[in-house]
Amino acid sequence: MSEDREFSSSRRRFLGGAAVATGALATGKLVHAQAASPDPLITELQPWQQYLGDGVDARPYGMPSQYEAHVVRRNVEWLTADTVSSVNFTPLHEMEGIITPNGLAFERHHSGIAEIDPGLHRLMINGLVDTPLVFTMEDLMRFPRENRTYFLECAANTGMEWRGAQLNGCQFTHGMIHNVVYTGVPLRLLLEEAGVKTSAAWVLPEGADASAMTRSIPLDKALDDCLVATHMNGERLRPEQGYPIRLVVPGWEGNMWVKWLRRIEVGDQPWHHREETSKYTDLLEDGNARRFTWVMDAKSVITNPSPQAPVTHGPGPTVITGVAWSGRGTIPRVDVSLDGGMNWHVARMSGPSLDKSMHRFYYEFDWDGAPLLLQSRAHDSTGYVQPTKEMLRQLRGENSIYHNNGIQTWAIDETGRAENVEVG
Amino acid sequence: MKKIAIAAGALLATTCVHAIAQEMPAPSREGGYGLGRAALPEEIAAWDIDIRPDGQGLPVGSGDVWTGEELYVTLCSSCHGDFGEAVGRWPMLSGGFGTLDAEDPVKTVGSYWPYISTVWDYVHRAMPYGAAQTLTDDEVYAITAYLLYLNNVVDDDFELSNETFAEVALTNEGGFFMDDRDDVEIPEFSQEPCMSDCAENIEITMRAAVLDVTPETEEETVEQAAVTEEDAPEAPAGPDPALVAAGETVFRACAACHQIGEGARNRVGPHLNGIHGNSVAVVEGFRYSPALREAGESGMVWDDETLAAYLADPRGFIRGNRMAFQGLRSDEDIVAVIAYMQSAGAE
Asked: Which residues in chain A (382-411) have CB-CB distances under 8 A to chain B?
């Protein structure tokens, strides 16, 4: 391990030396950097070129390279009383593309991770149905299933930033989100199986964990696009994501995506349970609160550079990238500003553009080494444009906690260091 | 069959604008697939625990304020404080009246929650923390009554029951309204935005670094982890490993409040490192109840015997202590968890 560290640090020194010369221009033609001496990484035989590595089966469930050990979910300890009822954050600044690997998808538990043997799990449908039913996992796997890619964002994502810049890192400001390919049975099929009565208007999903999480969801949404998911990104759900089944509620706040789903009750009124009254309601300036704010508004963030991922290469060609999403559709366009919102450039979208899924954008430019104020602004397929934080505060005040989709600013200084700031 | 195919085609045309061409929804089948089995009434009764504002779901039962206070002090106060004022960052349950439009609103059962049914439902389904669904219906009525009393909603002679439930209301019931973003925000946020020279002057108005509340950097964490690995001592000789492993499982009931092992700190309860063989109530920095302090001062030591007696009946063994735990019923569990504490908490 210590040997490997030396290698990587000498490599950094070598590249650092080379970077000084990069970007030099002579008579309009690019001149590449020149090395003072041959690179020993090329001229000398390296251990991995010489010795045999692990065979197959040495890693029956493959893990990332040891050099990626820092790419993990992280908790903000002061935020909650206890990790059992808490949240950690997806390392967005270490990721590319649009899919969140299963081990990096942020966690939010209310009574810890329920560890459930799928053979012992049951899903019940009761309430205003013709026949209350019980399903085993085997039953569920005999229903037709669908594959859909959706983002799940906690309504409290960016909630710590309502009153101003607070946390230095997009992992912490925007990391309560993941984007996953789900495989699941449409909830519609399970409700049809039980036979929904005509007086029904709401459903109440309930979790099997020690918090027995519940949320009221309108029947229309339940019949439209909700899934009872068994798989994420091609494998079974992870325990921390609700194994063996979780509810998928596309485009709507993550708290409704009940994990360890054990029961769906059908009713004619909402239940007004703890997570839709005491929590997940948006207190406005006049002391009144919005309830049932389910849809996640369009939002984006620049993931690189950002406070945890500064610019280390100095002036010259520079890649800005980030992610954008909307609970109302797709993201056909993202704008990027280098000067705190004074001027905007249309970014380049890359990768699949799917309904209610994360999108990836890039903006490439030659950095002159002067300080920058980086911002991104998402446009969704309904014509909604991501507002500034100030616009949100004017309408909602500063006590809302949830649904902060305001434009994020990163200040980059001459050295490439990035900081979370607000501008005005 | 043809009918279904046409319906699916129409759906595809209207809703799947961005999906690939062959995307088709999973098909419904007339009358269902015949999968699953009918739920029995006993099964529905066991799981259907939800309560609504109109009282639907409430079981027959009752509990008064004073009974509720006793239960609350025993089971709830270690996190929520004796009067609902909260310990540390645990939720505050009382007070906060008149603060909802203030700079720092305090959202409690009394100041913010709209319905009593929500309190009953939540206490019943998820509390006490780490021992969910262990309260009887009467106990839930009593604790709810006490929370209403703490928030000046009822007098101290009040008894909450399925019958008196409809007589009381919380003050903020009218403080909520349906999401109106579609009318209030969407039009304003759906205009073609400015692309150039959008402001006269833009400058930094606030910096996160000033607050400095971001968790430590990756380099620091990696270095700490490396040191820890190297410094890990050989496993000391101690209790039977199988017993320790069984005890670790039992300890989950304790872990909601107590930490043990490397880096353990005081939380709701004191950390439990070095407990075994030591005097009672000596963990530094923890505010013990007078009862536990007295036990320690009178010379009581945590050994196999005293720990077993305490874990079997915390309230009975040291009267007046604040540990919100009913006790372990099985002697096997007690022996195992003591072995685990001895092993994991060895200093």
From this structure: 382-387, 391, 395, 398-399, 411
